[in-house]
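Consider today's protein:

***
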Amino acid sequence: MGFYVNPSANSFADVLRNGKYVDKSELIAYMNSVLRTSDKLVASTRPRRFGKSFAAKMLAAYYSKGADSKALFENLKIAGMDGFEQHLNKYGVIFIDVASFISFADDIRDTLADIQSKVIRELMEEYPGCVRDKTKLLMEALMQVTAKTGNKFFVIIDEWNALFREVKDDEKLQESYMKFLRGMFKSPQTSEIFVGVYMTGILPIKKYGTQSALTDFWEFTMLNPGSLAPFIGFTEDEVKELCYTNHLDFEEVRRWYDGYRFDKIIKEEKPDGQGLERHNIVQHIYCPNSIMELVKNEEFGSYWTTTETYESLRDYIDLNYDGLRDALVDMLGGRRCRIDPQTFQNDMTSIKGRDDIFTLLVHLGYLAYDSGSEEVFIPNKEIRKEFVRALKESRRPELAKAVKIADELLAATLARDEKEVAKLIEAAHFAGTAPQNYNEEQALRYVVITAYLTSMDHYLRFEELASGRGYCDIFSFRGSAHRNRLC
């Protein structure tokens, strides 16, 4: 039993011990279903504080032959599922937390060498006489162990892309790291050595051109989580249960923290029994950290600043690409923006346009993505507050000014100060409308919507609402219901 090779279940036991664990053990059932198959290489990426490390610790505790973890799982969902005992504590496990190795390295450029040398050292201790003394490559050491013992390994890599975040401009180190991963997981020996691989991080696997650098992996992302969507964060049913047991107003929780949504196709037998019919259902997902902080603190608020700082958001907002300003203002006003996410290279340095920025913000959790319409939007009140904060301190004065006008306009409207309202609407009209469209009805409608963009946290807004003989273009009223239910 070591830190990196065949670890104990202590880390997962600590997670369970706090008494507030939300059972995500069905992820194990999925991994069991792909073990030793062509689908065994799994990469699941999501934002910070969405439970990535908890999942990694759970899988290590379950598979590691260095653990005795049956008691930890006996009250979880996986215990009642097929294959539970068949795979429990049956495999050699390699657990690599890349962020941890970076933090311990004297020089970040030594991280890759440190990973290989420390894991190889533990392999020598766990499997004496199997690894030759001068072995420096981890894959070579694993091949030697498998050749001598017949053991295969389950590999867990947590924070796989941490090196890309920390050394954004060191292409040589990045390429060495990708070469290391390709040597492990894209070689003729991969199937001989590994029963399964679970790799997690914030960004999907780096692209070169239009192809992933590790094409054999099955990727589950914030753009397309597939069958792993329920494990991206907390489901709506899980949040309802937490609200019930902790006496929280679910509607208010939904208004603050809901908004990530993923489509799921289910097949059901037709009423006449003649075949199957397909139905699309929407799965609503919540950020686990925000919900658990709410439960702990018993206070609604933005807990995002403890995960991804708004300074990083501001840096991307400050990139001056065509259409960025209008799209941001539209989304703050409750609208959506259509994007093409395929051009994004899955790194933080190859940004070439507005769509790349918005795709990156989806992976960071600042925007939600609707795969059906290929649109992005601000998911909830918590994230909107982070956008407003970032815009107020933006180095782009036109964005900061738009937010300032919106704040002042709402205050003037509530104070019934018609002169101030007229002045601010005029300022917003001048700033947001081209001269040739200045007097058009739709242009004025757009101006009013964007001018009141910061009112979205406090008011429900309806457009084209029937009002007797005609329609009311924009109607807002204060309410506690969810501001933007999508389905």
About this structure: Confidence is low (pLDDT under 50) at residues 481-487.
